[in-house]
Structure formats: structure tokens, C-alpha cells
Design goal:
Distance between the termini: 48 Å
Strand content: 25-35%
Number of domains: 2
Radius of gyration: 22 Å
Number of helices: 8
Structural class: alpha+beta
CATH class of the largest domain: Alpha Beta
Helix content: 10-25%
Largest sheet: 8 strands, mixed
CATH superfamily of the largest domain: Fumarylacetoacetase-like, C-terminal domain
Shape: globular
Amino acid sequence: MSRANDPSLRSWVEVKAGSDFPIQNLPYGIFKTASGRARAGVAIGDQILDLEAVAVAGLLDGIIFDKNVLSSDTLNSFIALGKHITNSVRERVSDLLNANNQEIQGNAELRSKVLVSQSTATMLLPVHVPNYTDFYSSREHATNVGTMFRDPNNALLPNWLHLPVGYHGRASSIVVSGTPIHRPKGQTKTDAEEKPSFGPTKSLDFELEVAFITGKPTALGESITPDNAEQHIFGLVLFNDWSARDVQRWEYVPLGPFLAKNFGSTISPWIVTLEALEPYKVSGPIQDPEVLPYLQYHGNRNYDLHLNVEITTKGGDTKTVSRSNFKYMYWNMCQQLAHHTVNGCNICVGDMYASGTISGPDTGSYGSMLELTWGGKNPIQMPDGTERKFIQDGDTVTMTGYAEKDGVRIGFGQCSGTIVA
């Protein structure tokens, strides 16, 4: 185990109980302040450690790399340096923030230069996303959707238990938490209508997902195996794959989602490294039938991440509508990346791969309004007396997630978006 993961570590920076960002986490992000300059930072408690300022102070001189990458408006160049650098920086930051270290703690002027309150900072999209793939890897979700729209006795399509189903999405419309989402328009057609109509979606949905970001590229023709996939995965973010269900139902045959998905996806701003999540690995569901050899893996590859979804009305009333867990995923990230590249597809630094909707075994753990309300048949009652079949204009959907063990909580911050007309 990395010494940065030691549950006994404490920081001289105040970390309140229940914080997502203890010294054992140290996720990377891009932020800006009133100066308007974007740069790299690490979250600690309710503060940001400004990595550019830390480098200027000479506190990263023991790690040989181009410090200018910390002054960029994305993390791509930093991530591309490789895990031997990014992990070394994480270890060094852990040392600098350790309660026993005086290098910053003992210098008031330096503290004021390198620490920024999260409340005064604006978080930006942490990476430039060259490519985005969305998977469909929760057995419970796929079964629920298949039950609603196909055959309850044969809900899964024939290929589902043999490969991680996925499709290529729109990278340009991935936005950081806090960015408003415009209600999309498109064609819809119900079974009762003779011809399609055009207009704003009436069935806007969220999808509770976790996405991983690749940090080690491959060449065209090269493949990744499940057992070496983690060498290519830099870290994870929460991901809301907004969906227009009525548009989707009409357009998805034969090629899959298009306008129903490409209008916006929201991510949390901090990338939690794979190394910080190492203590929270768990075994995944038993895969039966046995998968083909190129999808077989060794060890635990799922993660015990508690996930929550809240809806807040325009008037400010909030209700938790889903409590799920990333550990439920039938197909894990390593299998997803192996399948994605088995045909020689090359990957890039900053590519984003979403898990697909994460649903658990009971109603309260379903990861979409489509499932939670069973297609609108069972509306969710809100505290203000209104009800929700799907998401309304003015609603804010907020996703949070964390892993917890040995008194340490590793969280992601918020993944939040408000719907505007």
C-alpha cells in the first residue's frame, strides 16, 4: 500500500468530519481564481493546494519533470508524464500536508500563497476529452430496461452476458459540475401516434454513472488486457449521462443513442486517482456464462463506492431519490478497456469511459428516473407536494459518491447540473 494511503495520516490543514478530501485522497483538478488563470490543484479539506505555486516555491524540485504542465488549463500534459510522476507528486503532496511536516505549515507567507479556499475558486473541466465512450454494464439496469421495453422473460439481449456493450458518445458536450443543461429538442413518437413530432423532450432523465479517464495512450493496432488495464487508467470521476428517453426510444433503432444523449453529460471536477481507491477494491458479481479468455482477469477489480442522487426543485426542496453502489457493476473497468481495444482501437490521454447507469438490486438503488418511476408509472413524491416522473425545468440533480474504510472517507465532491429551458 502507498504510504499516502495510510489511514493513520493526519494533515495540518483542517479536514472536517465527513469531508470528501482527507489527506489520503488528494484528487487532482483544474481551478481558477479572481486572477483568471487556470492551473492544477489538489483538494484537501475545503482548501485547494495550488500545485503551480508549490512548484514555484521549489517544493517539487526533487521530482524531475517540466513544472510548466502545472500551469495548464487541463491536466492532460501532467497525466501524460506517466504514473511514476503523478504518483510521486501525490506522495510529495502527502508529505507536505502531513501534520508532522513544517515546510509549508511553518511558513505563514508560503501558506497564504499555496492554499486557496474552494469557496473562492471556480472549478474547470479537469481534462480535454479527445474521445468519450459510454458502456451499458449494470446487469440490474439492463434487465430493468429490457423488462420495460422488450420481454420480461428475456430482458437481456443475447450478447449482453458475453461482452461489455458500449457506444461512442459526444466528447464536446461533457461539462463540469455546476454547468446548466438545456432541455434538448428532438423527434419523438408514441405507439398511439401515426407520425413523429418535434419539440422539447418530455422525459428528461439522469443516469448515475462513474467514468474512468485514461492516462497512458496506445498505438493503433495495440490491445490492452484486463490485467494491465490499470496501468492505463489514471482516475475516476462521477458522471451524469443526461438522457432524453422519449427521443431515445424513437431514434435508437438501429444504431443506438444520438440526439437523446449528445446534448450534455456532467462530471465532478476532481479526478480521484486509482491509487487512492486501491484500499476499496472488492470482488464483482460472478460472471456466468464464463467470459472469453481476452476478458478474463485476476484479483478484485470492482470498487465499493457509495453513490447518492438528490433532486432539488426550483424552490429549494431536496429529496434523495437513489442510493446505489459502484460494486454492483457486472462488467468492470478493466474488462471494458480490454474489450474497447481488443480490435486495435487506440486510446488517448484524457479519454473518458462512462460505466453506464449503475443500478442495484432494489428499487431505491436504481440509477435513473426511468427505473425509479418505472417509466413514469410510479411518480416520486417531492417534499413540496409536487411529483416527478422525469426531470423538470429548474430541477437540479446532484450526485455524490465516496468510499469509506478504517475511518477514512475518499470522496468525489459534487456532480451537479440544473435544467434550463
